[in-house]
Amino acid sequence: MIDLYYWTTPNGHKITMFLEEAAMPYRIIPVNIGKGDQFQADFLKISPNNKMPAIVDHNPVDGGKAIPVFESGAILLYLAGKTGQFLPKDLRGQVEALEWLMWQMGGLGPMLGQNHHFAHYAPEKIPYAIDRYVKETNRLYGVLDKRLKGREFILGKGYTIADMAAYPWIVPDRQGQDIDEFPNLKRWHAAIKSRPATQRAYAKAKEVNPAPKGPPSDAERKILFGQDRSVIK
């Protein structure tokens, strides 16, 4: 059994997508980031960066004590290793998978996250910041669109953790993008959206957070964006 510490964010969706694809038994433990659940002392023991998602594997392959894993990219790699699924077996395929996973972790996620922040969450609309991150989002969409030309998925014909990592971050309307400008990306996104496991994963999100609100309140904004080292207890 996998315990999944989860909230309804792109990084959270990555893990439910994998678990549903692999048909692994898991239990969702909601971490309501708007209420500050991520700063609870018990969660800090599992995720020392105070971020979700995180997992605890109560049945690791070595038969030892439970293994906690934090950071969504690390979780995807761990689950791929545990199950032997969604990661190429050959060396070159593994290198490509790692490259595109790190591209998402180091670029696509952080840059599009800043897009979300300045366009939707920041109390003051700063044109320079919005323009900077909308344009960087456009560039990154272009990188992925080019990569997908002539490929069904990021690594070719096989669906992998690289696709699961990138998919939840592609939200064109929210990010100031016209998906029709990126035909390869549009096709890829539609194909993943239609997968039964993706649909099950996003249905879980509606169960956990059935009525997501609009912009956060001032109190929620302080929790989400106003923390310093004092939360590391």
TrEMBL record:
This protein's UniProt keywords: Oxidoreductase
Database matches in Gene3D superfamilies: 1.20.1050.10, Glutaredoxin (3.40.30.10)
EC assignment: 1.8.4.-
SUPFAM superfamilies according to UniProt: GST C-terminal domain-like, Thioredoxin-like
GO MF, any single term: oxidoreductase activity
Protein family: Belongs to the GST superfamily.
Protein name: Disulfide-bond oxidoreductase YfcG
Recorded name of the encoding gene: yfcG
